[in-house]
Amino acid sequence: MNQSAVTTFPVTDGVARALEASLRGVEELLPKEEWIQKLARSEAQGQPLRIKLGLDPTAPDIHLGHTVVLNKMRQLQDLGHQVIFLIGDFTTLIGDPSGRNSTRPPLTAEQIKANAETYYTQAAKVLDPARTEIRYNSEWCDALGARGMIELSARYTVARMMERNDFHQRFSDGSSISLHEFLYPLLQGYDSVALKSDLELGGTDQKFNLLMGRHLQQEYGQEPQCVLTMPLLVGLDGVEKMSKSKNNYIGITEDANTMFAKVLSISDALMWDWYTLLSFQSLASIAQLKKEVAEGRNPKDAKVMLAKEITARFHSAALADAAEADFINRAKGGIPDDIPEVALSGAPLGIGALLKQANLAPSTSEANRLIDGGGVRVDGGVVGDKGLKLAAGSYVVQVGKRKFARVALS
Questions:
Q1: Which distant-in-sequence residues (6+ apart) come within 8 Å of 77 by Cβ?
Q2: pTM reported for the whole predicted model
């Protein structure tokens, strides 16, 4: 947007509050000054902005990591803007090459259709369905045809495409890059042209594709969208980004008791990042809670509040309360009063090593076998991940029905 060629709108207190909400937890907002003016114009003219999020239905289920950008959409939706939930049924036929070191096998049309049917139903647990525009990019991509695809391809150069990190790295490594992969960022950018979006959201790995939307909108004579990237949510292990393949995820369709217990399993340090990215509490409320914990309040209180909020969002307040009661009952039930207390060091410590050092398992391999059999609990929650690492803290660890230890890990 050429600031010298347009009216400059005043930055009111309302605009400042909207900007604060926009910036919460974000990695980047580009260009910030353009976004401020879009917000100011929207307020002055009473015209909501068009906020776009595109997701490819590559799998049938959504986990909490996916909801980071959905939460941001909801925050912007609550400010009165029009959010567009775009299902990339056409682009999924290509497969997003972002961050990949090899060509992604495309899904069949049948797989895409099956996955897309569940995507919005799950996303609607975060977004307000009554105020959400649902679109499929096959609406305009199918209509492009061969001629339109050639014309679109002429809007960008191969040299600029090769500046993209993953393409550049694969080319340098001698890995194959199929021509159709160049079409993916072009078509994602063209989505912004078709939808006339003012802002597009995505993860940090989507920055190149989001900026493509800005470029193509300018090519087609539109005001360019701003770009907002959100950080990738760290998973239950506290190390890697949340991923099903790493088994460090919480699926939003998991039952309430499991969801509640999994949130309670995260480290105290990770909890505050999750508050920023997943909670709908105000930043002031979170800051106050963090201050109370720093001054001596039990961090578990804060973690329980987060677990109840997340569980209630995807289930109900009643089920969240029931999950808390279930967790307390399982954590207390059957635990003898005189269980041995063990002090261990080396945090973060792998669960297998912890079981061995606490004399709850004769070896790490036997500990892994017990985990596979569902026979290990930490603070009442079943451990399903052999790669789990426990941060410093105090834990009640149970193996089978009779072996217990209260472990103080430093």
A1: 51, 83, 127, 128, 131, 132
A2: 0.73
